[in-house]
Amino acid sequence: MTAEIHELRPGSGGPSHLPDEASDAAADAAGHLLELQQADGHIVYELEADSTIPSEYILLNHFLGDPEPEIEARLVAHIRSLQNEGHGGWPLFYGGGFNISASVKAYYALKMVGDDPALPHMVRAREAILAHGGAETSNVFTRYCLALFGQVPWDAVPVMPTELMLMPKWFPVNMWKFAYWSRVVIAPLLILAALKPVAKNPNQTDCQELFVTPPSQITHWLINPTGSRWGEFFLILDRFLRPIEKHVFPRLRWRNQAISKAVEFITERLNGEDGLGAIFPAIANSVMAFDALGLSHDSKEFSTARTAIRNLLIETSDKSEGRSYYCQPCVSPIWDTSLAGHALLEAGVEPDDERLIAACDWLAENQITEVKGDYSVNAPDLAPGGWAFQYRNDHYPDVDDTAVVGALLHRVNPTRYAKEISRAAVWVEGMQSSNGGWGAFDIDNNASVLNSIPFADHGALLDPPTVDVTARCLSFLAQLGYPQSHQVMRHGIEFIEQEQEPDGSWYGRWGTNYVYGTWSALTALNACGVDMSEPFVRRAVDWLKVHQREDGGWGEDGATYWQERRYECKASTPSQTAWAVLALMAAGEVEDPAVSSGIRHLVDAPREDGKWQEPWYTAVGFPRVFYLRYHGYSAYFPTWALGRYGRLMKSNSREVQWGL
What we know:
Elements: E1 5-6, H1 18-35, E2 47-48, H2 52-64, H3 69-81, H4 100-113, H5 120-131, H6 140-148, H7 180-195, H8 229-247, H9 253-268, H10 280-292, H11 300-310, E3 313-315, E4 325-327, H12 333-346, H13 354-365, H14 399-412, H15 418-430, H16 467-479, H17 487-498, H18 514-527, H19 535-546, H20 574-586, H21 593-604, E5 607-608, E6 611-612, E7 619-622, E8 626-630, H22 633-650
Antiparallel strand pairs: 1-5, 2-8, 3-4, 5-6, 7-8
């Protein structure tokens, strides 16, 4: 199809034509979406984070003493492009405020590759960092990086004894109480903290100019991340453990056992060229741990892990940057393929279309059926049956992905995929936590006291049940015919009701933010057969209508994860507008003016090659710490909303019949 940018005037076309316009726009976008389908049937879009990941890619190379000049030259072009003209530093998301940790890593990476500190962009960055308290105020993960490069003493980071690997499940602090992403990041980090290697740093680049106070003169590095009494207790414990970690633990036989246990944990989960946990921080830490342990760079373990890192590089699609690279935090093929499949169905692609069947066949082939992952620590008898988020990540199937994939397979052909659907349903049901909700990867991963340890200053150590993941599970099971009276369903619905915010919305853990959470909850409640005239449902509907913008769209900024900024919005976005419209339609508001205004906004919004223009980050890795821009969100969610609206307005029924 010829690339074409649509820039329609707001309000063009009368209301009677809107369903046709919506259907036409959905069909056009669906055609472009299908052009991206790979030969084996799957669809994958770019997954972008902030400047931190490309900065860390460069720092990793220089830790190893193995720079890649051509790649790094393109990475720094991307990093420079993300520097904010206003505050001079680097934000966590598009249009965001200054972030000290991202800025310190970006500045150090640029200097390491050769940017002169006297250059204007470096001067502005340095002044911003110093004005915000200096590199000494950066987060724990940044200070670990600086410690590896000898820029701060190891006293700048919390004590994390490698012996943590030996702690049994009943011990108050053990690896199995952490979230999956924490486990795979921490295991290699414990090796690094024990061995304290020094980066090769071939250019001997330092960043001492970023500190307000010279690191050697700083006596208090750690903070109480929650301000709680537990936080104070853990600070005292850290002071108690510090001399023991320095002088006692290294001499005990436990230390070698603990390091061996960490290596065993890592190697069992290396995951081939998809890497440990299939996420950048864990893979990077495993590469550095292998180097610190003295593994040859030609060894299978090291070279495979290094390849996994390089596989995350991608050439930017932003034409304004010229040819540059960035490094993705991970890849999202299962998520993209399954969500795109739902959008295609709504846009009018028939379930028996060979392209849709190819996508579903690919998904079916990637169901995890052999490996009992880490979830089995809490559910040893639960048979595998989930899907990961990435191409391969067998130890860490994702409940959210599994529910979305299962629902798609059921919509397309419940007979052809009966075995996969059944396995998924059993696995999802078995992953329910005791409070009725579902976490993304684990059961009852909610030891909130651990968020008070100094290491947890990022506030994302755990994977407790959330409304958005719970909603997807309920939607999937309801679509399969689980009645509202079923214990699993009843318990899940109660969890969603209990988690509703006082203003009627729901918090969005994995998408930004209350619009995402409210969309998730309302679609699930509708799928479960909840009476959509219930007062708590109407409060949610009213909240969405109140927060519709003058242009007919909806938007929420990444800053809404700070309570004092929870209603902040800079612009309407296509993906968030689509969520709001889908939520209202699920609540029975198909013919409401709020829905038609939202659809009009999507029809008129500029798009190119089937994608709506959306530079905003509308997803989250860790709230307030790490944000994500799924490039596919502005393709398949608006397509989904427009297609559904067109179909419902042309049918005799206004009821949304599917789980999602």
